[in-house]
Inverse folding.
């Protein structure tokens, strides 16, 4: 009978069996039971609370090659401290025709043993969660002192050596400008365009987007209020900053950090943001995609969206249309026609799509998209490379601490330093995940294939809000009169260089 052995030495406890002691116990068990250990896998300074265990992952990956009958560990908590992970990796081991054995907790295949294993794993999981609770306790102490608690530093602030927020005046100017523009009634899209045109950048050195502006305008810290634990770290395994913790779990201290905007302005913006969310655009309301762009071909006045009702088969139904605002308001325009909303919007969207991704313009559009992707990837690569270097340095420092402990230095002498390194590592790892470009694996051919595949449905398989953004981005003006609509595009794309094109509705 042959086996592979796994041992792990972590430094999150002061009393630990060393890897040497674990291996000794494993080999003693193997010798007594006539088991041949064909390979050893060792993780030093690694925690069982995550998959960041290279030797463990290597062992799982090698099962097809090694084909062991048994996987030997010293105790079950060396294998995993989470029942889900334990069940998952046990299943992988079983698929390879092997069985997990904890040599210091010898259990057989009986139902009783399964029950006992469940208890042991529950104990390990309790330890892991208790450790997390102790970490949270320390973070709450920091919060009551209004100290930085990790994560991404907000634009406009730096963190001093003692962990307190200080204003970064260069960045704060951007924050104040964002609030000023919003108070002046500008849309998120307009704010984004203005900032990026000025060459202003996020904390990560990237161009602004609507989401980043939305997050800034909703960030109470800018009014001088310290906020901690406002959102859970994960919801259903994913981050979701829209989900809020109950108020009794949130630490909120007004005036605890330097304010970049005054409280009154922040509250005014908050009111505007909430109104945008819950105001005129109530559920069931209609978004007229061409509002602000469509003009009457007779008098030049704006075409506005409206709703009417008609009786069809004994039932009353609503229908939506565009009409000349001048004709509606004063009657001075002769264009009294009501243009069906769906038909008119479809005509404009179909024209946009045909012009952007028709064969003679497709390559130019792909080139623009590909250049944008390359720039995003290049910026991401620089940021990630710097963070990976920092992670490498931190890991080397942690390894040296582990070596010192193995040579006899009492763990309590190094625990604080090691914990600090661990927190730095966790923070950088979370940052690294955020900074990795989502387009890293995409090729130019992928972009081209997507454009070909989506032709004829690119703009129609989107929400009304997205269609509105598409129209706003590409159409400067559209005029309608009778059965004809003239469309003036903003876009100049390769062979596409038109002042205006007519198309039928």
């Amino acid at each position: 009978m042959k086996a592979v052995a796994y041992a792990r030495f972590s430094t999150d406890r002061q009393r630990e069996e060393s890897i040497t002691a674990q291996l000794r116990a494993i080999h003693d068990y193997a010798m007594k039971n006539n088991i041949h250990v064909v390979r050893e896998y060792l993780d030093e300074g690694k925690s069982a609370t995550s998959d960041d265990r290279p030797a463990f992952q290597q062992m799982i990956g090698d099962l097809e090659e090694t084909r062991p009958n048994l996987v030997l560990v010293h105790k079950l908590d060396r294998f995993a401290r989470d029942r889900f992970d334990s069940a998952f990796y046990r299943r992988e081991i079983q698929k390879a025709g092997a069985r997990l054995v904890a040599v210091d907790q010898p259990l057989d295949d009986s139902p009783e043993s399964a029950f006992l294993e469940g208890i042991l794993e529950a104990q390990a999981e309790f330890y892991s969660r208790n450790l997390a609770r102790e970490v949270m306790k320390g973070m709450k102490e920091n919060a009551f002192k209004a100290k930085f608690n990790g994560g991404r530093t907000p634009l406009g602030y730096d963190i001093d050596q003692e962990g307190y927020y200080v204003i970064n005046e260069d960045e704060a100017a951007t924050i104040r400008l964002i609030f000023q523009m919003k108070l002046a009634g500008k849309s998120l899209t307009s704010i984004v365009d203005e900032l990026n045109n000025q060459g202003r950048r996020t904390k990560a050195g990237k161009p602004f987007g609507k989401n980043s502006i939305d997050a800034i305008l909703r960030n109470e810290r800018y009014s001088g209020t310290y906020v901690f634990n406002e959102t859970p770290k994960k919801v259903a395994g994913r981050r979701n900053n829209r989900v809020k913790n109950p108020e009794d779990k949130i630490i909120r201290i007004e005036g605890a950090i330097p304010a970049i905007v005054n409280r009154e302005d922040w509250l005014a913006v908050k009111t505007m943001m909430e109104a945008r969310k819950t105001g005129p655009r109530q559920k069931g309301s209609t978004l007229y995609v061409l509002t602000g762009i469509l003009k009457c071909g007779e008098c030049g006045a704006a075409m506005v969206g409206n709703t009417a009702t008609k009786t069809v088969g004994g039932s009353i139904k609503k229908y939506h249309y565009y009409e000349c605002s001048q004709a509606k308001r004063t009657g001075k325009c002769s264009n009294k026609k009501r243009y069906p909303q769906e038909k008119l919007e479809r005509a404009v969207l179909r024209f946009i799509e045909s012009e952007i991704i028709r064969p003679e313009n497709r390559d130019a559009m792909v080139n623009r998209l590909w250049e944008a992707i390359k720039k995003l990837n290049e910026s991401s690569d620089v940021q990630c490379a710097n963070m990976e270097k920092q992670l490498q340095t931190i890991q080397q420092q942690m390894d040296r601490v582990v070596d010192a402990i193995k040579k006899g230095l009492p763990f309590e002498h190094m625990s604080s330093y090691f914990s600090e390194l661990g927190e730095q590592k966790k923070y950088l790892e979370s940052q690294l995940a955020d900074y990795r470009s989502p387009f890293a694996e995409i090729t130019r051919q992928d972009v081209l294939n997507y454009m070909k595949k989506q032709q004829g449905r690119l703009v129609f398989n989107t929400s009304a809000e997205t269609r509105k953004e598409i129209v706003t981005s590409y159409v400067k003006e559209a005029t309608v009169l009778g059965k004809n609509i003239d469309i003036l595009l903003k876009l100049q794309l390769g062979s596409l260089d038109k002042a205006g094109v007519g198309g039928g509705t």
Notes: The first helix runs from residue 19 to 32. The CA atoms of residues 274 and 311 lie 37 Å apart. The chain has four domains: 2-132, 157-278, 294-340, 341-505.
